[in-house]
Description:
The structure is a single chain. This protein has about 140 residues and is of the alpha+beta class. It has 2 helices and 5 strands. It is elongated, with a radius of gyration of 16 Å. The structure holds zinc ion. Zinc ion (ZN) binds near residues 37, 41 and 43.
Amino acid sequence: MMQQIYPVSPHSYAYELNKDFHFAAAHYIPHEDAGKCKVTHGHTYFTNITIVGDDLDDTGFLVNFKAIKDLIHKRFDHEILNKDAAFSDDDATFFPTTEVVARTIYEIVQDYLHTLSNQPVCLQVYLRETPTSYCIYRPKEVGK
Ligand SMILES: [Zn+2]
C-alpha cells in the first residue's frame, strides 16, 4: 500500500497513531435523488484512522494497530453495508453514504477506546470511497 500522510488538525497530544487499511463492501443509497447510487454497487474503501493520547498502556502501546483494523475490517469487509445494524434505509442520518460510514467508523472505534485504561481518543477518520472522492469525519468534541 502506498504510504501517505493525511491532513490532521493540530493537537497537543504526545502520541499520534495512524492506521491504514482497506475493505471491500457494497451499498446503495435508498433515496430517489441518489441517481445511480440507488443501485447496489461496490467500493474498495481506503481508511485512515488517527488516534491520539498522552499515556501508553502496559504493553507500551497507545493502542494496538491490529485491534483497530479488526473492529472495522471484520465487521464490514465483503458485506452489504445497508444490512449492518449501524445503518438504515429509512433515516437519511443512517444511509451508508461516505459521510455516514466515516462517522460510524469513528463511533465504533471511539466506543472501543473508551474501554482502554490509558484512554486514547480518535481524532479523525479519513474514508476514501473512490479514486476521486473521500470524506474526513472529525468529532465536534474529541472523545465523545
Ligand atoms: Zn457508492
